[in-house]
């Protein structure tokens, strides 16, 4: 009988264990459900999703059926329509996704078969010797490596797609300037191949530099599942023996970043509440300010701190921000503006095309000092020094803040020291970093008693 593959965070055909399971059992009907409860995020994410779906439709020889509605209802109808024997999925690990899948399983008369997950190692699998979950990255990553993962799944030679089932057109594409060409399966793999061809050798050295194109930019593809991390990990192992010692350090570093993604998914699996609440109680009782004018200025990239503003403008225009700048902007909101990380995380989650609940919320908590490997709360990023260090010639700032393009070199990080530095409409600083740093430390001291 027919096998439905319900695509969610796995919008690809290669290295797709659930698709393999379905294709082995019979004709395959690929389905994507526009679930009003899940879609509806920012334009960059919606546009990335559209790009990935268009490619998936082509990869499935136009068999892909898109329908809108509550998944349990849409799937019941489709099961009846095609007389399906089973609905196949990649297992989900986010709290909302798990609840939804449990509901769907209840509602269906045929099995909901989960094969694989969007991770090399399924969240919840790697544990301490006593069976408890890890709370710190380094021991987790060691155990994760020791656990290992399967080789990428091979797609059967000829999938028999069940074609001609009626659906709705793909969701409309919102207007966006976002760089989304790598959202689809083929283009993500092309980007990856080009990255492996050279840039990855310098990853360790370049990954902290937002002025360079030194990272893979695969976060959107990983978010949508247009590539599976296991594909990337297998390629790293394959090329490593032929690379120099220095390059091998970079490959290890890249593998560690994939491990961070897996760690945060594991943490969320064990602690679903940490998506929108403090993971740890390090800062219980902390006094925060309600989001006000400062928060608005931060969202809009007009704080008067060039490195922070460049990041926030890259975010709103591209739906992506460099990791170093995510840390600096998050620190600015939580420690200079004293706003609870949840407000910032919510804004990021809406704006980011790669917005991923586990990585976003725990990335925020890492910076805020409430997370797993809490960076010490008292380590407050200086937004000017960070800019000078990681954007040494000021190129990143000038790219995103046109009002500062008349300032050459690193001086762009302190326009207030340049004659007419703010003359092109760039705002004055909304706060004094030294004062707010001390304020953050005072509030911390009050909590620590
Ligand atoms: P690369 O440097 O090429 O890394 C390769 C892959 O490793 C990334 O695509 C990503 O999947 C993973 N990775 C890298 N760094 C991290 C990290 N610190 N934590 C978890 N995974 C990582 N990443 C998201 O994918 N979605 C988010 O919503 C998200 N929100 C974040 C919020 C904050 C406040 C912070 C500090 C970090 C956040 N990150 C998030 C992590 C990181 O910033 C991005 O994964 C990275 O910038 C994506 O760019 P890239 O693909 O070029 O990364």
Automatic annotation (TrEMBL):
Keyword presence, Mitochondrion: no
Q: Which cofactor does it need?
A: FAD
Alphabetical UniProt keywords: Chromophore, FAD, Flavoprotein, Lyase
Q: Where is the Photolyase/cryptochrome alpha/beta domain?
A: 1-123
One biological process GO term for this chain?
Answer: response to light stimulus
Positions bound to FAD: 203, 215-219, 254, 257-264, 354-356
Q: Which GO terms describe its molecular function?
A: deoxyribodipyrimidine photo-lyase activity; DNA binding; FAD binding
How is the cofactor bound, in the record's words? Binds 1 FAD per subunit.
Which Pfam families would you find in this protein's record?
DNA_photolyase, FAD_binding_7
Which InterPro entries does this entry report, sorted A to Z?
Crypto/Photolyase_FAD-like_sf (IPR036134), Crypto/Photolyase_N_sf (IPR036155), Cryptochr/Photolyase_FAD-bd (IPR005101), Cryptochrome/DNA_photolyase_1 (IPR002081), DNA_photolyase_N (IPR006050), Rossmann-like_a/b/a_fold (IPR014729)
- What's the domain of life for this entry? Bacteria
Q: Which PANTHER family match?
A: CRYPTOCHROME, CRYPTOCHROME CIRCADIAN CLOCK 5 ISOFORM X1
Query: Which family does the entry's similarity section mention?
Result: Belongs to the DNA photolyase family.
Name assigned to this protein: Deoxyribodipyrimidine photo-lyase type I
């Amino acid at each position: 009988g027919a096998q439905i593959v319900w695509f969610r965070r796995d919008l690809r055909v290669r290295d797709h264990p659930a698709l393999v399971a379905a294709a082995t059992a019979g004709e395959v009907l690929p389905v994507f459900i526009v679930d009003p409860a899940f879609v509806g995020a920012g334009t960059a994410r919606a546009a990335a999703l559209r790009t990935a779906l268009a490619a998936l439709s082509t990869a499935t020889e136009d068999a892909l059926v898109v329908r809108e509605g509550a998944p349990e209802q849409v799937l019941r109808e489709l099961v009846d329509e095609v007389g399906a024997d089973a609905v196949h999925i990649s297992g989900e690990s986010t709290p909302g996704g798990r609840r939804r899948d449990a509901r769907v399983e209840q509602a269906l008369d045929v099995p909901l078969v989960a094969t694989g997950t969007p991770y090399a190692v399924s969240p919840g699998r790697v544990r301490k010797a006593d069976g408890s979950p890890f709370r710190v990255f380094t021991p987790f990553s060691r155990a994760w490596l020791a656990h290992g993962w399967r080789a990428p799944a091979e797609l059967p030679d000829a999938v028999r797609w069940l074609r001609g089932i009626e659906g709705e057109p793909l969701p409309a594409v919102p207007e966006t300037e976002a760089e989304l060409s790598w959202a689809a399966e083929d283009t993500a793999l092309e980007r990856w191949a080009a990255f492996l061809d050279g840039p990855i050798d310098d990853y360790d050295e370049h990954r902290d530099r937002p002025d360079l194109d030194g990272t893979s930019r695969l976060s959107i593809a990983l978010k949508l599942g247009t590539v599976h991390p296991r594909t990337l990990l297998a390629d790293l192992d394959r090329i490593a023996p032929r690379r120099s010692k220095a390059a091998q350090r970079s490959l290890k570093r890249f593998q560690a970043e994939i491990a961070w993604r897996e760690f945060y998914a594991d943490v969320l699996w064990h602690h679903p509440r940490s998506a929108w609440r403090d993971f740890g109680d390090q800062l219980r009782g902390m006094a925060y300010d309600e989001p006000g004018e400062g928060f608005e200025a931060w969202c809009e990239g007009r704080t008067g701190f060039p490195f922070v503003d460049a990041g926030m403008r890259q975010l709103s225009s591209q739906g992506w921000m460099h990791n170093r700048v995510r840390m600096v902007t998050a620190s600015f909101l939580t420690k200079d503006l004293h706003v609870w990380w949840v407000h910032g995380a919510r804004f990021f989650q809406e704006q980011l095309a790669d917005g991923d609940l586990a990585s976003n919320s725990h990335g925020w908590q890492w910076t805020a000092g409430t997370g797993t490997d809490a960076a010490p709360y008292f380590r407050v990023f200086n937004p000017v020094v960070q800019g000078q260090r990681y954007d040494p010639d000021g190129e990143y700032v000038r790219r995103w803040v046109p009002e500062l393009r008349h300032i050459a070199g690193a001086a762009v990080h302190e326009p207030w020291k340049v004659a007419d530095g703010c003359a092109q409409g760039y705002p004055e600083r909304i706060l004094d970093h030294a004062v707010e740093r001390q304020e953050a430390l005072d509030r911390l001291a009050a909590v620590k008693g």
